[in-house]
């Protein structure tokens, strides 16, 4: 809600009346025809009694989006209400690239009249609403919004540009497969990830002899009859993990809406959502432009906090080199699984992987780069071959660090080879 001050100006209709009155007076004086000057009297009288002083000096504009937070592809409604203006109003709405109207609401200009209120003491004011569909993640302003106000007698007008409402669009969470077969990085907390240690889980592990003092609830009768001794069913222990997703925002290549940064954010959101639903702690680190982090935590609120952190990732001309050592211990706890989304277009991303490995974390790299370089001429095959050799050498360098590389285009479910991380870590 914002209160704006008005500066009423003569409308084109008032200027036309004034022009006709001046021309009639001039013709009456020049030609000596008083009957021509008489035509200007009602026009001048109308302009003099137009009621300029009776118009309000301030109006209240309320622009809100319901719901103010949504995901990509969902619908929202923009409501605009003007209080304190007695005449009609025209609203012109221009939308950014991340918002569009459904096909049945292509008109961006609406003439709105008076709408009576429930309380007769309140003033009358125009209202309007638009249905908006979000196409890309980000924080988008539903505007600029231009209000053109006219007085009831159409002789005065005013133009306002109120502050537009902000719509927060979270990246669409891409479906990710939850890795439950990795023993490295687990914690003593109870969870849904199977380990190699015996415990009280539900995943069958082996059959072992019974020792005195143990409960007889898990006795395997058939194995006991064959061996002549009591045999128990052993189950694997299930524990929780800490997951930290890292997003490289140095470069973003590809078509709009499907750049490497868009694919990385959707993959990070889907991976975080899968682990949050499994009651694991999830955190985030974003480097590029500025270093941001969010400590691991549990619950649906953590997912929305993480999505809000990812929205702040933007490319910037002035940025700092990623120094993982500056991240506090609460953001990168020991024995945490780290998933890095990076197209490897900047050498500093490799430095981040090296720093994470030196700190003892289990790291997996997700490469969202599916766009190949374009060009023309005779050197195109040579340049493309050199680029492929460079990418292959870069992947071998990362493999020597013990970091598995997953190529993902954002169209299929995200499956990470966590089962090999324990071997690479040793």
TrEMBL record:
Q: Which InterPro entries match?
A: DUF58
Q: Where is the DUF58 domain?
A: 207-368
Q: Which Pfam families match?
A: DUF58 (PF01882)
This protein's name: DUF58 domain-containing protein
């Amino acid at each position: 809600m914002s209160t704006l001050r008005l500066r009423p100006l003569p409308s084109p209709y008032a200027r036309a009346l004034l022009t006709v009155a001046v021309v009639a007076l001039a013709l009456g004086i020049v030609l000596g025809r008083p009957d021509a000057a008489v035509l200007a009297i009602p026009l001048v009288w109308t302009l003099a009694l137009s009621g300029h002083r009776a118009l309000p000096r301030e109006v209240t504009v309320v622009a809100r989006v319901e719901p103010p937070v949504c995901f990509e592809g969902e619908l929202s409604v923009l409501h605009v209400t003007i209080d304190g203006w007695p005449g009609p109003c025209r609203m012109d709405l221009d939308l950014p690239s991340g918002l569009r109207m459904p096909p049945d609401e292509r008109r961006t200009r609406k003439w709105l009249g008076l709408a009576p209120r429930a309380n007769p003491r309140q003033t009358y004011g125009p209202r309007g609403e638009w249905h908006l569909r979000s196409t890309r993640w980000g924080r988008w302003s539903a505007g600029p919004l231009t209000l053109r106000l006219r007085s009831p007698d159409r002789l005065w007008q005013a133009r306002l540009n109120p502050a537009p409402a902000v719509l927060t669009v979270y990246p669409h969470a891409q479906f990710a497969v939850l890795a439950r077969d990795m023993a490295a990085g687990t914690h003593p907390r109870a969870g849904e990830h199977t380990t190699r240690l015996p415990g009280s889980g539900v995943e069958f592990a082996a059959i072992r002899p019974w020792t005195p003092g143990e409960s007889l609830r898990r006795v395997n009768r058939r194995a006991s009859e064959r061996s002549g001794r009591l045999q128990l069913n052993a189950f694997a222990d299930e524990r929780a993990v800490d997951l930290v997703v890292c997003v490289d925002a140095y470069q973003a290549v590809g078509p709009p809406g499907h750049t490497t940064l868009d694919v990385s954010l959707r993959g990070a959101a889907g991976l975080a959502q899968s682990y949050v639903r499994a009651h694991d702690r999830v955190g985030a680190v974003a480097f590029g432009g500025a270093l941001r982090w969010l400590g691991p935590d549990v619950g649906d609120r953590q997912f929305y906090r993480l999505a809000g952190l990812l929205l702040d990732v933007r490319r910037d001309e002035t940025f700092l080199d990623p120094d993982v050592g500056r991240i506090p211990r609460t953001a990168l706890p020991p024995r945490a699984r780290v998933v890095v989304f990076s197209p490897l277009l900047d050498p500093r991303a490799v430095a981040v992987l090296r720093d994470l490995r030196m700190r003892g974390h289990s790291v997996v790299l997700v490469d969202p780069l599916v766009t190949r370089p374009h060009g023309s001429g005779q050197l195109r095959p040579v340049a493309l071959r050199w680029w492929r050799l460079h990418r292959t050498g870069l992947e071998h360098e990362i493999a020597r660090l013990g970091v598995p590389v997953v190529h993902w285009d954002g169209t299929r479910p995200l499956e990470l080879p966590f089962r090999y991380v324990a071997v690479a870590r040793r």
